[in-house]
UniProtKB/TrEMBL annotation:
<dbReference type="InterPro" id="IPR036520">
    <property type="entry name" value="UPF0759_sf"/>
</dbReference>
<dbReference type="Pfam" id="PF01904">
    <property type="entry name" value="DUF72"/>
</dbReference>
<protein>
    <submittedName>
        <fullName>DUF72 domain-containing protein</fullName>
    </submittedName>
</protein>
<dbReference type="InterPro" id="IPR002763">
    <property type="entry name" value="DUF72"/>
</dbReference>
C-alpha cells in the first residue's frame, strides 16, 4: 500500500520556528511544505472558491509527485445541505481541475447536523452530479449514516467513506472505494494561537488507526492520511507519530528544508 501523509492546510504563521525556518515568508509556505510532505488537504476551499490563477500558482509551486485534496465549499455542504444544482458544483470544480495530475481526492465534509433521514436523498442527487474523472471522499459526522445502503451507494460510485477521528461520531473502518482517506481531526479545544506544539496526547488513538490501516494493506493500493492542528496542536508532529506507528521513517523537516527539492521528495517514499 502506498501511504501519503500530510496536514490539513499549510498556511499557519505559528509554524514559523517549529516547522518553517525562522524568517520564512507566508508566500513561501507551500513551497517549503511540499519539500517535507507530498500531500496536503486544502482547508481554505471550504470558505471560498479559489481563483484559477491561485490554483495554477499552487500547482506550479510544488514538485511533480505532490497531491492536493481540496475540501468542498461549505456553501454547498453546510449552508445548502447538498441541495444545489450542477452549476454550483461546476463552479468549484472548474478552477480545481487546473491542478491537473496533482489533484488528489476531493473531500466532501458534511456537518454534524446532516443526518441520514434528512439528507440521504440530497446526497444521492449530489453524487449523481459528480464527474467520474475525479476521486471523491465523503466525511459523515453523525452516526445515522453508518448503514448498509449508504455504504452501497458510495461503493457503487467509487466514493471513499472517510475514516475520521472526531468527537461527534464513531466512524467505522469501512472501505467503499479503491483508496482509504483518514482524517485525524479532533475537537476545537486547542485554540489556533496555540498551534505549533503538541498539546494533547492522542498516541493510543493514533496507534489504533495505524493498526486498522495495516489490517487493510492487502485490500487497498493507496491511502491518504491528513492530520489537523486541532487534533494535538501541531499536525506535522502528529504525522510523525502516525508514521512511526506504521513503522515508517519519520520526517525530519529541519533537515529536509535545508536540502534540494528532488532529494527531499525521494526520501519521502
Amino acid at each position: 500500500m502506498k501511504i501519503r501523509t500530510g496536514c490539513s492546510g499549510w498556511s499557519y504563521s505559528s509554524w514559523v520556528g517549529p516547522f518553517y525556518p525562522k524568517g520564512s515568508s507566508s508566500n513561501d509556505f507551500l513551497k517549503l511544505y511540499s519539500r517535507v510532505f507530498h500531500a496536503v488537504e486544502i482547508d481554505s476551499t471550504f470558505y471560498r472558491v479559489p481563483e484559477k490563477v491561485t490554483v495554477i500558482k499552487w500547482r506550479d509551486s510544488t514538485p511533480d509527485n505532490f497531491l492536493f485534496s481540496p475540501k468542498f465549499p461549505g456553501e454547498i455542504t453546510h449552508k445548502n445541505g447538498l441541495n444545489v444544482d450542477h452549476n454550483k458544483i461546476a463552479d468549484f470544480l472548474y478552477p480545481i481541475e487546473f491542478l491537473g495530475n496533482k489533484l488528489g481526492p476531493v473531500l466532501v465534509q458534511l456537518p454534524a447536523a446532516a443526518t441520514y433521514s434528512k439528507n440521504f436523498c440530497a446526497l444521492r442527487n449530489f453524487i449523481k452530479m459528480l464527474p467520474e474523472s475525479i476521486r471523491f471522499a465523503i466525511e459523515f459526522r453523525d452516526n445515522s449514516w453508518f448503514r448498509e445502503d449508504v455504504f452501497m451507494e458510495l461503493e457503487k460510485n467509487r466514493i471513499a467513506m472517510v475514516w475520521s477521528d472526531i468527537p461527534m461520531a464513531k466512524v467505522p473502518t469501512i472501505i467503499t472505494s479503491d483508496f482509504i482517506y483518514l482524517r485525524l481531526v479532533g475537537d476545537r479545544s486547542i485554540d489556533s494561537h496555540d498551534f505549533g506544539k503538541l498539546r494533547i496526547d492522542r498516541y493510543e488513538s493514533i496507534l489504533k488507526w495505524a493498526e486498522e490501516l495495516k489490517s487493510k494493506e492487502n485490500e487497498i493500493e493507496n491511502s491518504f492520511i491528513f492530520a489537523n492542528n486541532h487534533y494535538q496542536g501541531f499536525s506535522p508532529a502528529t504525522v510523525n507519530i502516525f508514521r512511526k506507528a506504521m513503522g515508517m521513517e519519520e520526517v525530519e523537516w529541519a533537515t529536509l528544508l535545508k536540502t534540494s527539492l528532488p532529494d527531499n521528495q525521494k526520501r519521502l517514499f
